[in-house]
Amino acid sequence: MVTAAQRRAAFKALHVKGKAFLMPNPFDIGSARILDGMRFDALATSSAGFAWARGVRDAEGLIGRGDALAHAADIISVTSLPVNGDLENGFGDSPLEVVETIKGAIEVGLAGCSIEDYSQDPKNPFYPLDLAVERIKAASAYIKENAPEFVLTARSEGPVKSEHELEQTIKRLNAFNDAGADCVYAPMLKDEAKIAKVLETVDAPLNILAGRPNFHLTR
User: For residue 103, what are the contacts with CB-CB under 8 A and spacing of at least 6?
Assistant: First the structure.
């Protein structure tokens, strides 16, 4: 039987600069079993996939920490692959709440997780940079103390259509990297030139969301 520590180590080893791997998103036990048999290196939960499967909207606070972690545990139970958790904003605004989510993620056996800077507050949808950084710092410090191989991915959810928006995203990704994130992620990135710029200016592994409209990279 593969242990949680072995899964964490295997997932960490995939995050090598200059190499890429595919990580599909099962939304239930059945899809996890199918993907487990297709020779991927890792799987990842999807907050949207899980929410939609339950008939609710994503990223509106309708899925709680306990629900998300129980869903992750279900996925983990049917695969020997490392599983990364999409844990939204950490199910709380404060660094302490994010740490509580990280603690739960490690306990259920996730090999890593993503924490985003989208606040779910319609009036102020993105955390201020200083608070966003403190949240990642707190998560990183807990991980280093308790499960050093656990992979922390920090997500910048803002738009990247204009050059200014892209620069702001790069600023956030660099700040998250400096705060201790092992990987960075900007879901809005889908243009090859902009992805290349992020790779050139952010010294961290980069997660890219593929398989959606107007995403045409073929190499």
Answer: 142, 146
Residues in the chain: 219
| Contacting residues for 85 by C-beta, under 8 A, at least 6 apart | 44, 45, 68, 69, 72, 105, 110, 112, 113, 114
Q: Which CATH architecture has domain 4-207?
A: Alpha-Beta Barrel (3.20)
pTM greater than 0.85: yes
- Are 207 and 115 spatial neighbours (Cβ–Cβ below 8 Å)? no
What are the residue ranges spanned by the domains of the chain?
4-207
- Alpha carbons within 13 angstroms on the beta-carbon side of residue 186 total 28
Q: Report d(CA 141, CA 136) in Å as an integer.
A: 9
Distance in angstroms (rounded) separating the CA atoms of residues 196 and 168: 16
Q: Which residues of the chain register pLDDT less than 50?
A: none
Asked if 75 contacts 44 with a C-beta cutoff of 8 angstroms, the reply is no
